[in-house]
Design brief:
The protein has 159 residues and is an alpha+beta fold. 47% of the residues lie in helices and 24% in strands.
C-alpha cells in the first residue's frame, strides 16, 4: 500500500503539542501550578509562615504558562531546523517494513521498530522505538482509510 503525504509545519506543530500535552507529566505539572496559584490567591499557607510565600505565585506561573510556552518555542525551532518534516513523503507499507521516500532522503522502518500507533482526529502518529514520530494526515489517505487501518490491525496495533 502506498500513501503520499505532505504535512505543513503548522500541522506538525499542532500534532506535537497535542501529543505531548496529553502526557501525564505535563498534566501533573499543570495541576501543581493550578494548586499553587489557588493557594496563593486564597492565602493558604502550607508552611505556617506569617504570609503566603511569593514563590507559590512564581512556580504556579512557571508551571501554567512559562513551561508550555518554552516547549512551544523549542518545538517551532526544531521544526524549522528540519525541513524534511514538511517535504512530500511517499510511504510504502510492505509486509516486513515501511519505506519512506522524500525529496532529500530515503528511510526504511521495520514493523517491529514501530512501538505504537496513535490515531487522533487529524491522522495517525507512528512512534518508533528511538522516539521518532511520523505523522500521516487522514487527508492523505483519501479512500484508503479502512484499508490502512485494517493493515495496521493485521500488524498487531490496537486503537
Amino acid at each position: 500500500m502506498e500513501i503520499e503525504a505532505q504535512v505543513s509545519s503548522e500541522q506538525y506543530l499542532k500534532v506535537i503539542m497535542e501529543f505531548f500535552f496529553k502526557k501525564p507529566i505535563f498534566i501533573f505539572f499543570e495541576i501543581i501550578g493550578i494548586l499553587l496559584l489557588g493557594c496563593y490567591i486564597l492565602g493558604w499557607n502550607l508552611e505556617n509562615t506569617v504570609s503566603t510565600p511569593i514563590y507559590y505565585l512564581v512556580f504556579s506561573l512557571f508551571f501554567i504558562f512559562v513551561n508550555p510556552f518554552i516547549f512551544y518555542i523549542y518545538s517551532k525551532i526544531q521544526i524549522s531546523k528540519m525541513p524534511e518534516i514538511t517535504e512530500k513523503i511517499i510511504y510504502y507499507f510492505g509486509n516486513e517494513n515501511i519505506s519512506l521516500t522524500g525529496k532529500n532522503f530515503d528511510s526504511l522502518i521495520l514493523w517491529e521498530d514501530i512501538k505504537k500507533i496513535i490515531e487522533n482526529s487529524n491522522g495517525f502518529i507512528l512512534i518508533q522505538k528511538n522516539k521518532i514520530l511520523n505523522f500521516i494526515p487522514k487527508s492523505a489517505l483519501n479512500n484508503n482509510y479502512d484499508k490502512f487501518k485494517n493493515l495496521l490491525i493485521e500488524k498487531g496495533f490496537r486503537f
